[in-house]
Amino acid sequence: MVHKSISTVLLVGLSQLSVAVWAANQAPEVRGQSETIRQAGKHQSWVWGQDPEGQTLTFEIVKPARHGKVTLDPKLGRYTYEPSQSTDYDEFSFRVFDGQQWSASAPVQLNFTVKQTNKPTTHTKQPEQPTNPKHTNNTNNSNNQAPEARGQAEQLTSFAPHHSHVWAQDKDRDQMTFQVVQAPKHGKLKLDRKTGRYTYTPQSNQANYDEFKFQVSDGQSTSKIATVQLMLNYVDRKPTQPVSPTTPTTNNPNTPKQPTTPVAKKPTTKQPTEPKQPTVGNKSPNKPSTPTTKTPEKPIDQYRSKDDFSANVKEVLSNDFFSPTFNHGATNRLHDVALAIDFLARNGDTTDGDLDKLLYYIRAFNYYGNMKEIPVADLALLNNALLAVTQMSDFYTNQESAAAVQEGYVVALSGLFRQARIAEQLLSHIDVVAQLLTHFQQDGISKIKRHADSIFETLNIVDELGYHSKNMRETAYKSVKEKVKQANLAERVAKLGGSEQGLWQGKDAFVLFNAIEALGNLYLRDDSDWNKQLDNYAANLVRQYQHYADQEELKSNFYVYYVNKTRYYDRNTTAEEACEKDFSGLCHIYKVDEILPVEHTCSSTLKVKAQELTTAQLGYICSELKDMEATFHQKFTSSTKQQPVADDYNSNLELVIFDSPDDWHKYGGVLFQVSTDNGGIYIEGDPSKKGNQARFYAYERHDLSEWQVWNLRHEYVHYLDSRFNQYGRFGHHPLQLTTWWAEGLAEYMAHGKSNKRGMSVMQRYTPARRPGFTDIAQTSYDQGDDMVYRWSYLLHWYLDENTPTQYLDLASALREKDSAIYKERLGKLGEHFGDKFTTWRDSKLTQSSPMIAADLYVASDLQAATISHKRDSLAHSPLQQRRYSTARPPRRN
């Protein structure tokens, strides 16, 4: 609608001005992509288009697919492809229209996975993979797998030699030879037969497209032919004579030409079909009435040296980016980092510290960024960059640098595995994970301390691939689940657990325990043959380690992380019955009273169970929480009348205190099936059920200047808040509107107006990056600790100090079963006090005296209070968690 009003009003009434408007417009951009998909069923994904001025785009197909049917949503750029015949490759082309100009066309290459036969799956022992990827071929190897080559699409913007590499892999790790099958028509090509690197030198700057074909050989088999498509969009192209624009008609949208320098004449009344709503997540503002001189930032296509790294990449390399204050959402940030990773991977140096840091940045982005907002083309770019990392010659070696790169790779991969949009492109990574599991079984791996982390993170990836993870229940991951079985991940996990790494450096069982847990996560509800294999793998690991010093710990982990987890989905057998029948002598069930013998009653509403507390310490705990309860009721009496919310039977709280963080990590999960990857948890359960027991789990800190129970006051406020302020169980009211309330209130009540550390953290934000009232009120648990705890704390302080009546009215609204009243009151508060909060916020932060950096983040505090805020949204509510943490690797000195 915006475009139509411009064309019909400005072009008719102000013909000269209309020329200026047209001249200011910049054509939209598209980018080709290559995807790997299944041969059967529908495949859905997105094409990539962008307009420099953020205008609404219309997507259309230019060249249809040859071997299937493809439909493209003209507004969203989402396409559906359904193959009509058996083939190993198909492609289609598309372009986009911004209301004035068409982009160039770009191809979408569709590479099909190998069609599966109906042969039964065998589980014979696979040959050991050599550790040196440069070994010579064994010509008598009847199990050889043909190498795989994959096509790609690249964009050239300069009439200069273009350097890149083609993509191929050999699952047997055989040395590959690259060869050109069909040379390009409009340029010269030089392809390195050993590395796959190529140089394309254009010879005609008037050509718009070129391509070449290649294949690879491993000495025994040859891959299928793959095509590299080159979009020649030279910015230094010799100009051609401008022509008058042709306005496309609505009857034939496939024929419009790109206008260049239109003349001021009355346009035709027919306009190209345009979407009515903005696409690609951008609202479509009106075109400027005068030319703009601002040059939009365009994504970079490729790096040829570190000097070419963009400001986005250089900023990552020169700053502390593992912080919410770092601008993770900068335009093209992830795109540029992916290109830099790809460049460094092609350089082949695992000792390059920049590669390690950029891979570590992807971990930070997984934590603070939002992968859901990243265009699918950039996800594919990151996917290919990570595959390039796995092709480095030293990737599968026993070196400190290789271990660091392995760890960075699998952690970065974990973020991609959660993106259903590119699920089909992730299949190749499962082969890499399988190979890593085999690589880690080598003797001497534990001599490299960094391998402890790379093994731990790789086993975490197996958990991501487990059939009970949220992702694996989605239809898009069907082929991924099939690939997990084909790659024999379960057998490889079991072998790793049974290798010398099972007891890391002969004493630490973190690999063994995580291997047992990973096997439990691979359990299937309706596949008895598969599950029987898993049972045998897990049980044999326990039997193999009869020499392990702490048999109770081993057998308890087996019971909780394997038996209890897998039998939860078995309708015919309980975990206890399985221990007696299937796993006799292999289970140990810790008794709560055995680990927590201390019992103490503070009051009718508070009782304590602990490992070891003195009478004085128990008295201190009771006194602290009594004072906290009195302060809470003093503040909210007018809204609560000190009466619990309706339908709440959590009449008392059980405070469970472990002797140390290590004991919390060791016993918390096996005793109570709760996550221990945090600084303590309050689990409400279902307060509407009579007999439900609310519990707060905590641990002692003996390493501080003064003894304390960590987060004691904070977690107790959660109990009081859920009992007297918030109706229903955790999550009854929308979490996107109550996270700030729950966590901010716990911080505000625990610290009052003296929270020096929290204030110092917030002072590090520039005023422009400080969140406003609505930003905080709509925060969620995946937005980072600062938003969840610090800024939420500050908003509570403001409301309590400046609008106490409305603050208590908001608390009263939370007591209602219906969330509508709370939503309305919260919205009005934001409207009336949003600007005033901003002024007050900046004033408070200016007045506060900051802590020095050395005191701001104390290492022992960070280690003990490693709060995984992305799990907090789960950790407060369930009666029992199905996914909770097990043993972590030892810390590196």
UniProtKB/TrEMBL annotation:
<keyword id="KW-0645">Protease</keyword>
<dbReference type="Pfam" id="PF01752">
    <property type="entry name" value="Peptidase_M9"/>
</dbReference>
<feature type="compositionally biased region" description="Basic and acidic residues">
    <location>
        <begin position="295"/>
        <end position="305"/>
    </location>
</feature>
<keyword id="KW-0732">Signal</keyword>
<keyword id="KW-0378">Hydrolase</keyword>
<dbReference type="GO" id="GO:0005576">
    <property type="term" value="C:extracellular region"/>
</dbReference>
<dbReference type="InterPro" id="IPR002169">
    <property type="entry name" value="Peptidase_M9A/M9B"/>
</dbReference>
<dbReference type="InterPro" id="IPR010221">
    <property type="entry name" value="VCBS_dom"/>
</dbReference>
<feature type="signal peptide">
    <location>
        <begin position="1"/>
        <end position="23"/>
    </location>
</feature>
<dbReference type="GO" id="GO:0008270">
    <property type="term" value="F:zinc ion binding"/>
</dbReference>
<feature type="active site">
    <location>
        <position position="715"/>
    </location>
</feature>
<feature type="compositionally biased region" description="Low complexity">
    <location>
        <begin position="240"/>
        <end position="294"/>
    </location>
</feature>
<dbReference type="GO" id="GO:0004222">
    <property type="term" value="F:metalloendopeptidase activity"/>
</dbReference>
<feature type="region of interest" description="Disordered">
    <location>
        <begin position="238"/>
        <end position="305"/>
    </location>
</feature>
<protein>
    <recommendedName>
        <fullName>Microbial collagenase</fullName>
    </recommendedName>
</protein>
<keyword id="KW-0964">Secreted</keyword>
<feature type="compositionally biased region" description="Low complexity">
    <location>
        <begin position="131"/>
        <end position="144"/>
    </location>
</feature>
<keyword id="KW-0482">Metalloprotease</keyword>
<dbReference type="Pfam" id="PF17963">
    <property type="entry name" value="Big_9"/>
</dbReference>
<feature type="region of interest" description="Disordered">
    <location>
        <begin position="869"/>
        <end position="893"/>
    </location>
</feature>
<feature type="region of interest" description="Disordered">
    <location>
        <begin position="118"/>
        <end position="155"/>
    </location>
</feature>
<dbReference type="GO" id="GO:0006508">
    <property type="term" value="P:proteolysis"/>
</dbReference>
<keyword id="KW-0862">Zinc</keyword>
<feature type="compositionally biased region" description="Polar residues">
    <location>
        <begin position="118"/>
        <end position="129"/>
    </location>
</feature>
<keyword id="KW-0479">Metal-binding</keyword>
